[in-house]
Amino acid sequence: MKHTTGIHHITAIVGNPQENVDFYSGVLGLRLVKKTVNFDDPGTYHLYFGNEEGAPGTIMTFFPWSNAHEGTIGSGQVGVTSFVIPEGSLSFWKKRLTKLNVEYGEMTRFGEDVLTFDDPHGLHIELVEREEGERNTWNFGGVDTKHAIKGFAGATLLTGKPDSTLKVLEEIFGFVRVAEEEDFVRLKSSDSIGNTIDVKKTPLSSGRMGSGTVHHIAFRANDFSDHEEWRSLLEEKGYSPTPVVDRQYFNAIYFREEGGILFEIATDPPGFAKDENPEDMGKKLLLPPWLEEKRTQIESVLEPADARVLKGDK
User: Fold this and answer.
1) pLDDT of 156-177, one tens digit each?
2) What is the pairing mode between strands 124-129 and 112-118?
3) Total count of domains within the chain
4) Cyclic nucleotide-binding domain location, by residue (predicted)?
């Protein structure tokens, strides 16, 4: 049986791009690893945040539109994105969020203490301590490597058909059911980050895409041949995956499962250092070759979006 090692990336829709960068880079300390555009809508950024290398399992990506209508979180979406932090870091993050005026809550789920808060555009975010996962060597602003986010802990899926979604996760992707608690089922994959999926057993009202909602969640394929095998498997199981799409930094296929969630399978290679030196990633706008001749036009409509140290950290 095939299995994915876990989450590759999660992509969301948000509002103002500089607010987005200030939160995920300035507040959370993630590296802006790639500043490019939505290939299907080149007048819009596609911003990628992650660890120093931009490794699969650490990447949160965004389509920011300043005038985007507000979405509604509900069934057919990722309801919560969870990041993993080193053991002993919760007190650091409580102090940091308080200092930067980010309201947070605390809860316990599946025996883990969790910090919960929203980003400026309404996305639900969590931080959870775990020993597993490599340390993030990136430090920025007030976040040092001792406390830096390692990558994804996991995600909470809201689905219109929980049994169908669980079937895909277990029988297609190879996640293993490890626990049930109240209204949630927890599944795990084999990697040390991005390895936990919680599925809410009770359907909510359908979500509506817009600012503050997750567009899709992507799972990992080891390489390009593995990716082709995933596509063939999906077809054999009666799903309708898209053709392979070249996203420059990975290849992608997409399909929507019966619970309404848009799933992607993305390749680990070639990675974000494909078109610039690792030390320079995220500093300038990178365009694919077919859009390079339109650079002046594209840059004229994009708003500023740069990683910067926040006043509270100076």
Assistant:
1) 999 999 999 999 999 999 999 9
2) antiparallel
3) 1
4) 63-120
